[in-house]
Amino acid sequence: MYYIIILISIILILLLKIIFNIKISDLKNYKENEKLTELTDKFPNNIELTKDILKKLNNEKVQVKENPDSETSMYFALTDTISISTKKNSFAKIQTIAHECAHSVQNRTTLMANFIISNICIIYFITILILTIFNIINNPLLYLLIFAMLGFLQFTIRAYLEIDAMTKAKYIAKEYMEEKEIISKEEIDVICCEYDKLNKMGIPFYVWNLFSKNMIKIIIYAIVALI
Fold first, then answer.
1. C-alpha span between 67 and 64 (Å, rounded)
2. Which candidate, 156, 145, 148, places its Cα nearest to that of 121?
3. What distance in Å separates the CA atoms of residue 134 and residue 8, rounded to the nearest whole number?
4. DSSP state string for 164-185
């Protein structure tokens, strides 16, 4: 049975990669457009930019903190805080910040459910893995089934939140740039076209990667159960 589960999991990972036309090499070889970066560098620094977008979204209660040790920005639902990277040399920074700001105005119940279920999945997986290694669990298949169901729930909620934020981010960024009137409309259109190109690669990859991580955990547990 575990061999079948492992085989099906691998097939699903590969099948979804084909269906979504995932080309990891394209993402690895993607290079920043220096001319577009020069345009986006004309906008305010990341902290001010974040506060401006939050104001635009009528959500100024969110705390904004600068994180000089990170190259990525992140919204934390539990503390209602956005941790902002100080990275400047990226034309995608406006869309990235808009993405995190978009998370801050999503349904609070959904955000907290994502946080709680994600942590339950982590704790549950580690627990059953250890118990199975020490032969404390008598029916690993049942626990694997429960984990698969939890993983599916976590994947569904997380994918919904991320796709929603990624889809809205470009339009929020575009409106922000148009309102600031720092660069021309033509230049904004060029930046947004590049955002479209980036999203076309990034969104399917994110969903596939999220799905694959859950499948890999199932494979790992199935292998441990076999030993």
1. 10
2. 148
3. 26
4. HHHHHHHHHHHHHHHHHTSS-H
Cα(64)–Cα(66) distance, integer angstroms: 7
Which amino acid is present at 31?
A: K
Classified as helix, coil or strand, 23 is coil
pLDDT digits (tens, 9 = 90+) for 157-192: 999 999 999 999 999 999 999 999 999 999 999 999
Q: What is the pLDDT of residues 72-109, one digit of tens each?
A: 889 999 999 999 887 666 889 999 999 999 999 999 99
Q: Distance (Å, rounded) from C-alpha 118 to C-alpha 124?
A: 10
From the number of C-beta atoms within 10 Å of its C-beta (0-12, 13-18, 19+), residue 143 rates as buried
